[in-house]
Input
Amino acid sequence: MQSSVGVTGPQRLALRLVGLRPGLSAGELAATLHVHPSTLTGVLHRLVTQGLVARTDDPDDARRAVLRLTPRGAAVNARRSGTVEAAVADTLRAVGERDRRATTRMLEYLAGCLGAADARPPARDRRASTRTARSSAAR
Output
């Protein structure tokens, strides 16, 4: 996608969201994407450097910056050919209803598992708590 549209997948997603919600802050964008703000810093830096996104002071809170598409960013945002969403649409058109239903079930299951994973402590913490519980039970 970078060669056809000029942005990477993560940049495209950030660009699409800023286009849908002009005035979004970087923190709000990170929360929407479920990523740590530091993860988003590089993506936003490249979008600003490319002249696709502008950071401006929030008119209601000068301590906060908000994001808006530049005219060039709006043009890239409007592109559909060569994008991830175009590839998904092409794929969905190419498969039958049965395959789409199976894919939907799998993605819903995956989303549920990922949601459940967010609610659990990280694997290292689970192992540590399991060892602690076992050692307590052995005493």
DSSP finds eight helices and three strands in the chain. The longest helix spans residues 97-119. Helices lie at 2-5, 9-20, 26-33, 37-49, 71-78, 84-94, 97-119, 123-138.
